[in-house]
Write a structure and sequence with these properties.
The protein is 4% helix and 60% strand. It is mostly beta strands. The chain has 2 domains: 31-62 and 83-401, Lipopolysaccharide (LPS) transport protein A like domain (lipopolysaccharide transport protein A fold), CATH 2.60.450.10; 497-694, Lipopolysaccharide (LPS) transport protein A like domain (lipopolysaccharide transport protein A fold, Sandwich), CATH 2.60.450. It has a 42-stranded antiparallel beta sheet that branches. A hairpin with an 8-residue loop joins strand 18 and strand 19 (348-354).
Length: 702
């Protein structure tokens, strides 16, 4: 009769069974990685744009460079200079300090000034100021085309851009439009800056809006000293400085070691002033796989185990603090998180599904709260050949508070349509709270605990389940339904067809001893049988048989089964100080001022025993004494012991001084037998006297 809680809730954190050692790991797409993508990518390509713009400013008037033609050089066309071309420009500030300088080297230049000019073997060296700091850059290319009037320049063939702070870009084409303040390339581009490197097929940059776009086949690589490199692929990418947005668009895939994130889009929000990322979003068809060495947002090794994890959702939203620590992670709609076991974990698959999963982190980036919103379902299933019963938790939403240091849940608040299940054991309520300090799951608002295997169903205003011990405490309006394990076996503790209902003010169940205790106005009803008492205890033995003990002014009513002839026996009513029902002995024992009545037969004695037939639903014998007083209509008999047999409807009293008194007189003897259905009485005297007589009651006069 063990209630459902005896097996249900190994819950310290949503039904995980034992916490494995906590692992130190780096999440996929860390704040540092995202910062490198944002800072490195923009600095490389925006820096290239700025370098190109500086190098191609229309030169002011100055001393003409002196060509040094070789004596054997062929004659040149008009406007063509050979043998090494050098051009210098300098920009001064108001104090006469050099702010920007450009030195252009070319093996040859063709064309007139003011018209389109072609340069071969181009090298441009620049000195510039950026955010108050001096910088240097170099551009080399096989050739360049410059149109001053159109403010257009094209570098072609082995274009290479470098800066002294580590920026490096290679492509076969670089086009600058001064009138549009833009730089672009339709060719493949390869770039690198410190820990960031990548490739793309074409890019454009609009200096007016600060918009950068990588046109096709984007691939980025981020090196990390402490972890495997992070690789990002997408169909294209774009960034806008003023909006603080970096977007990877189309077929996005982020990998780090064995970990992988896929989505249709990846959007990073950043502050250009302090170069700090504050938000990252994976959008549409999000698919995240992580190995056991990496933590998914919100799941430590203590809560998730050490095996692989798989998260799918339509959107994964990460928020970061100004100090770059993770503040919040939101997955949803349609969040679905699967946790696989590690080598030392129980062989089971865990799955958490909810419309939204919201993870909140403390100032050290450790999980401190988890909220599941709308239609939440957590399941745990054994992985063959393991055969553990599946476990589920279902509710509209829950809020879990977590100890950041250990990753263990301290409290979990389950709200609306709450349902827990483990195999045949189930518990439902509209509200439930798990308290780790007490290892207690408190169910309120129409709570019900059901064990289909044991045949029990518990209702109360409040039900508390001890998740580690399996103990149960229920109070106020307790209603407990018990069903026997056999449809044939009946009795006070019910059958499948005729269950037992127990109502009480208080209920306690101890799983270790399998003892159920009911207190405060207890009523036990099974079919037409019932027991009323101040308290009832039911103990289940190892063999499954049960023992019931009732105390504090016990009142019972038992309706025996109909006889073979169809006659229905009278109800057996009993009062006593205490009562015991034993399924093994198939007996009911009353003690303490026992009063028993069936039909017109009544007995009074200090103790009485009802022996039941094998069906448990009818009385075999009633034994009362010592002493016993029996009364039937006008008859009154006393003796040491009385035995009533319903099948023969006879009452036998024995003792040293058995006495029968009725309207005709008084008879004494050693034993007395009388029949319930008629007036016959058999009195046996002492053995040595051998007195025997039959007394018939005189019929009443009209």
């Amino acid at each position: 009769m063990a209630p459902a809680a005896a097996y249900l809730y190994g819950l310290p954190y949503l039904l995980y069974e034992r916490p494995p050692p906590r692992l130190r790991a780096t999440p996929l797409m860390t704040p540092r990685a995202a910062r490198l993508v944002r800072g490195g990518l923009l600095l490389v390509l925006v820096g290239v744009s700025g370098v190109v713009a500086l190098s191609l400013r229309r030169p002011g008037k100055g001393p003409a460079p002196a060509p040094s033609p070789s004596p054997s050089a062929p004659p040149a066309r008009e406007g063509t200079r050979l043998g090494g071309f050098v051009h210098r420009t300098v920009k001064m500030d108001k104090d006469g300090n050099v702010r920007e300088g450009t030195v252009v080297h070319a093996q040859s230049i063709e064309g007139k000034e003011g018209e389109e000019q072609r340069l071969k073997g181009v090298e441009v060296n620049l000195t510039y100021m950026a955010k108050g700091q001096p910088g240097k850059a170099t551009i080399t290319a096989d050739e360049g085309i410059y149109a001053a009037q159109a403010q257009k320049a094209v570098f072609q063939g082995h274009v290479h851009v470098t800066t002294e702070d580590g920026m490096d870009l290679k492509t076969d084409q670089l086009i600058y439009r001064g009138d549009h303040n833009s730089v672009k390339s339709d060719a493949a581009v390869e770039f690198k800056r410190k820990d960031l490197s990548g490739t793309a097929l074409g890019f454009t940059y609009d200096g007016g809006t600060g918009r950068l776009e990588l046109l096709k086949d984007v691939q980025l690589k981020i090196q990390d000293e402490d972890n495997p490199a992070t690789l990002i692929k997408s169909a294209r990418a774009e960034a806008t400085k003023e909006e603080g947005l970096l977007k990877f668009l189309g077929g996005v895939e982020v990998t780090q070691g064995h970990d992988r994130l896929k989505s249709d889009r990846l959007v990073v929000n950043f502050s250009e002033e302090d170069r700090v990322i504050h938000r990252a979003q994976a959008l549409d068809d999000v698919d995240l796989w992580t190995s056991g060495a990496t933590q998914v947002p919100g799941m430590t090794s203590a809560t998730a185990g050490s095996g692989p994890r798989h998260l799918t959702c339509r959107r994964l939203d990460l928020w970061f603090r100004p100090d770059k620590t993770l503040q919040q992670a939101v997955a949803g709609p349609e969040a679905d998180l699967t946790l696989m076991p590690g080598p030392k974990d129980p062989p089971e698959r865990k799955r958490l599904r909810s419309d939204v999963l919201d993870f909140v982190f403390d100032d050290k980036g450790r999980l401190e709260a988890l909220t599941a919103l709308k239609d939440t379902l957590f399941t745990t299933e054994a992985i063959p050949p393991a055969k553990a019963a599946p476990r589920t938790v279902e509710c509209k939403r829950f809020v879990a508070k977590v100890d950041p240091a250990t990753g263990q849940a301290t409290t979990i608040d389950f709200l609306k349509d709450v349902a827990f299940a483990r195999g045949p054991q189930k518990a439902t309520a509209q509200h439930a709270v798990y308290d780790a300090s007490k290892t207690t799951l408190a169910l309120t608002e129409d709570p019900v605990v059901v064990d289909e295997e044991q045949g029990t169903e518990l209702h109360a205003e409040f039900i508390d389940l001890k998740t580690e011990l399996g103990d149960v405490h229920a109070r106020e309006g307790v209603r407990h339904i018990l069903r026997g394990r056999s449809a044939v076996q009946a009795g006070l503790l019910g059958s499948k067809d005729d269950p037992t209902l127990i109502t009480a003010g208080l209920f306690d169940y101890t799983a270790k001893t399998k003892l159920a205790s009911y207190q405060h106005g207890v009523l036990l009803r099974s079919g037409k049988d019932e027991i009323r008492a101040g308290g009832i205890d039911i103990l289940e033995r190892p063999d499954g048989k049960r023992r019931l003990e009732a105390s504090a002014r016990v009142i019972s009513r038992m309706q025996p089964k109909a006889a073979a002839d169809g006659k229905t026996p009278a109800t057996v009513e009993s009062r006593a100080g205490e009562m015991t029902y034993d399924e093994v002995a198939n007996q009911i024992v009353y003690k303490g001022d026992v009063y028993i009545r069936q039909g017109d037969i009544q007995t009074k004695s200090p103790a009485a025993t009802l022996s039941l037939n094998p069906d448990g639903g009818s009385i075999k014998t009633l034994e009362a004494g010592d002493p016993v007083e029996v009364q039937q209509a006008a008859r009154r008999a006393t003796g040491s012991k009385g035995t009533y047999t319903p099948s023969t409807e006879t009452m036998v009293l024995v003792g040293d001084n058995v006495m029968l008194t009725d309207a005709t007189g008084q008879v004494q003897g050693r034993s007395l037998t009388f029949h319930v259905g008629d007036e016959r009485v058999l009195v046996d005297g002492r053995e040595e006297v051998r007195t025997q007589m039959i007394i018939k009651q005189e019929p009443p006069k009209n």
